[in-house]
Structures are given as C-alpha cells and as structure tokens.
Write a structure and sequence with these properties.
single chain; 486 residues; alpha/beta; Amidase signature (AS) enzymes; 11-stranded mixed beta sheet; two-stranded antiparallel sheet; 13 strands; binds glutamine
Length: 486
C-alpha cells in the first residue's frame, strides 16, 4: 500500500499558483493510463490529443490572466453512458458501438464551463446494468487492488481510474448503487446526489425514476468540488429541481455540532461479511468519539428493497430500451427478411444477455394481467420505503451502514448467478428508491487487503450535511490516502 496521489484541492492550488501546468498534469495522467490501463482496463476510449489541447488552452488562458472555471486544468474521466459531442458514447454495448451523440449532456456542458479536462471515457456494465463491469460488451475492468477481482459496477471504470491514480476525478451514474458500490470496492469516495439534484439530460436512460449522475474522487473535498460543478437546474430534464446549489466544498470544514447518526438493525443482517460489519462499527465508534449521538432507527421495509428495485428498474429499462430498434440509433443487423425480423435480429445481436434479461423481466412486469400484481405493487412498496426514510430523518441527520455485503468479489464468481449478483445491491438500492443522497467512503481493509466502504445517507437535498458528516470522519482517519501498490 502506498500513499495517495495529490488531491483535487492540492492540484488546484498548484495549478493556480503556476507551480504546475495543466499540460503536465494531463501528461502525468496520460502516462499513468498508458502504463497501467492495459492491466486495469478502466478506459474504453482515451482522448489523448483532445485532452492535451484542452490543457494547453487552459495554460494559455491562465498566462494571459483570463478568469478560469473552478476545475480549470483538472482531468475528469466520464462514464461511457453520458453523451458528449465529438466522442463515441457506447454504453459498453454493441448496440451503440459507433454512436457519436450530436449534443452534450448537461453535466458535460458544466464540466466544459468549469474548464475541466475531459480525458476519456470509462467502462461500465452494458447500459449500466450490473455490479461488476463484466457485462461490458468490450472488456472487463479489473480492481486495482487485486486484478483478479472486479472493481464493482456499473461505474467500475470510473472508480478504478481514480483508484489507480489515472485521473483525480471521474463521473458515473447510480441507478441502484453504481457509484457507491464501485467506490467501496476500489477504496475511493463516490456519491449519489438526491434525485433531481443533477440533470439527467444526456445520460443514456436506464431507469429514469432512479438514475442520477454523481462524482468520484480520492477524497470528500474532491467529490464536493465536483458535485458543485455538476449540480443545478436544467429545464431539459423535467425532474431537475430548481433550487440553489450550496457551496459544498466551502462548508466542509465547519464543525458539525450535535451530529445525530442513525443505525438501522435492518442493515446488519445475514450475509454481511464480518470484516465489513466490523469496519463499519469501528467507523461509527469514530463518530461516537467525536461527540456524535448514535441512535437506533428502523427501516422496516428494507427487506423488500431488492425485490422492488428488480421490478421497477427493469420495467423502466424495458420501456427506455425500446428505442434501440435498428432505425433510430446505432446498430442494425445485416441479415433480415422483413421489418419484424429486422427488429428482432438487431436487438438479438445488439444486446448482451443481462440487458435482454432485464428487458424480459420488465416487459413481463408491465404486461396486462401482471401490471397490478408486480409493477403497481412495487410502486406502493417503494412509497413505504420512502416513508421509512422520511420518519428516520426526523430523528437523525445521517444513516450509517455498509455499502456492500462483502468486499470486491472475484471476476467470474457471480456472473452466472444473477440473483447473487443482484443481492450485492442490498444496501445501496434504497437510496435510489427513496431518492435520497448517499456517499461511500473508504473505512478500512479486509484481511485480504481489499477496501471496505462506509455508506452515509441523508434526507433529500441534504448533500451539504452529508458531505460535512463524511469529511468529519475522513479528517480523523487516513483510509482515503491509501493506494494500491503497483
Ligand atoms: N447493480 C445494479 C443493477 O444492476 C445497479 C446498477 C446501477 O446503479 N446502474 O441494476
């Protein structure tokens, strides 16, 4: 284990003071990618020339004294399901293998306006469906802490890229844990904001009522700085909320007097690895020693989260993915006899097994006769889950729990057992169903040397509190500074 590459704040300081040029920072990241990514496989495309050019422009603008954006010169890697002009957005699917979007996602506009350097596109499970990056049509990403293991998913490429020091920041999307779970597996910070906090415009839709874009960084401050850039109202996403964006990074160091932390017994259940359980309890003890009040809360409908998610998410996916018909977007099969055959050959060849499984599950749950029994019922239980959180957050500021039941599993270990794979999402799904913000923080290592994550959740739009509570822990510990040995 070695200690960390510089944090985003350190890099920003060096860039502003002139000690570091954006071009040399980008060159360092590109070198690191060149030397390590063959083993890790975090990136699907690297925009070498574009990144160098963007950095050179920033150095030049700094030289002439122009005012620059808040992330000027900082490399950011982007999950390959977020549209950006001039680059392919494949969703790690054959279906979109050659798709170049005609527009920028809102978050890409924000990153460009912040003068971040878009360095490349990261691997994911196809259309963000999965927990291991093994469902990518192109490559499996490996966990930088143990190359035999998965980095988690679906934003595994974004998490691994930060963990391996290939970029200080990256973005991902989280529909059922896809930012927080890979962050936990890779020992970095990852955050899912409140539903509606960040515009989904230009994020390729998986399950629209759950999807949310969020940051990865090697510390809480970096995540806060990036969230500040990503968050904010956008009329093109009707679920984006028009509320001012707090200065998250600025308020981080303010002491959190009277912090109340909730622990739910429903989060410490059968199947939870004892080392993960221990690490989370030790983290809670750190809060206790800092004067936080630890309270028991109850989330009685937790046991239904996985079942509800695996009805709601596939239902929405089956509808969202209907657009890939060989006419509107992307791939079209070469051989077919008639129009119906063209659709089925295109979808049969263009989608991988997991995507097909979700489309079938969703189509089934939405079909006449089953709609009430499955989809509608799931929506009702979803409301109960949200009410559990509303009640709990009347009594506490944040809820602490594990992020994942185990540390990173091996590549190939769960891929043939979809149900076991789905159970991996047991602690992360509730935040998507309830729409609440959640963050994953490094909080220890297993005896095998694998990172373990602590999850904190807060009430909707309480990102500021969430980040302050997270920073309070991070200040007292040094887990976030550890990096894999190469
Ligand atoms: N692992 C979950 C799934 O496969 C979550 C994915 C996500 O958040 N995009 O659906």
């Amino acid at each position: 284990m070695t200690t960390a590459t510089p944090s985003t704040s350190q890099l920003l300081q060096q860039l502003t003071s002139g000690e570091l040029a954006a071009t040399s920072l980008v060159a360092t990241c590109l070198d690191r990618i060149a030397s390590e990514d063959e083993r890790v496989g975090a990136f699907l495309h690297i925009d070498r020339d574009g990144a160098i050019e963007q950095a050179a422009r920033i150095d030049e603008r700094r030289r002439v004294g122009e005012e620059l954006g808040p992330l000027a010169g900082i490399p950011v890697a982007v999950k390959d399901n977020i549209c950006a002009t001039g680059t392919k957005t494949t969703c790690a699917s054959r279906m979109l293998e050659n798709f170049v979007p005609p527009y920028d996602a809102h978050v890409i506009e924000r990153l460009r306006a912040a003068d971040a350097v878009l360095i490349g596109r990261t691997n994911l499970d196809e259309f963000a469906m999965g927990s291991s990056c093994e469902n990518s049509a192109f490559q499996s990403t490996r966990n930088p802490w143990d190359l035999e293991r998965t980095p988690g998913g679906s934003s595994g490429g974004s998490a691994a890229a930060v963990a391996a020091g290939m970029t200080p920041l990256s973005i991902g999307s989280d529909t059922g844990g896809s930012i927080r779970q890979p962050a936990a597996f890779c020992g970095v910070v990852g955050m899912k904001p409140t539903y509606g906090r960040v515009s989904r415009y230009g994020l390729v839709a998986f399950a629209s009522s759950l999807d949310q874009i969020g940051p990865f960084a090697n510390d809480v401050t970096g995540a806060a700085q990036l969230l500040e850039v990503l968050a904010g109202h956008d009329e093109r996403d009707t679920t984006s909320i028009n509320r001012p964006v707090p200065r998250y990074a600025e308020s981080l160091e303010q002491p959190f007097e009277g912090l109340r932390i909730g622990i739910a017994k429903e989060h410490f259940v059968e199947g939870l690895d004892p080392e993960v359980e221990q690490a989370v309890h030790t983290a809670i003890d750190v809060y206790r020693s800092l004067g936080a009040e630890i309270k028991e809360v109850t989330l009685p409908h937790s046991e239904y989260c996985v079942a509800v998610y695996y009805i709601v998410a596939p239902s929405e996916a089956s509808s969202n993915l209907a657009r890939y018909d060989g006419v509107h977007y992307g791939f079209r099969a070469e051989k077919f006899d008639n129009m119906i055959d063209m659709y089925s050959a295109t979808r049969g060849e263009g989608f991988g097994d997991e995507v097909k499984r979700r489309i079938m599950l969703g189509t089934y749950a939405l079909s006449a006769g089953y709609y009430d029994a499955y989809y509608l019922k799931a929506l009702k239980v979803r409301r109960l889950i949200r009410q559990d959180f509303d009640r709990a957050f009347e009594e506490v500021d944040v809820i602490a729990s594990p992020v994942t039941p185990t540390p990173a599993f091996k590549i190939g270990e769960l891929i043939d057992d979809p149900l076991a794979m789905y159970l991996n999402d047991i602690y992360t799904i509730s935040a998507n169903l309830a729409g609440t913000p959640g963050i994953s923080l490094p909080c220890g290592f297993s005896s095998d040397g694998l990172p373990i994550g602590l999850q904190l959740q807060a009430a909707p739009f309480e990102e500021e509190r969430l980040l302050r509570a997270a920073r309070m822990y991070e200040r007292e510990t040094d887990w976030h500074t550890k990096q894999p040995d190469w």
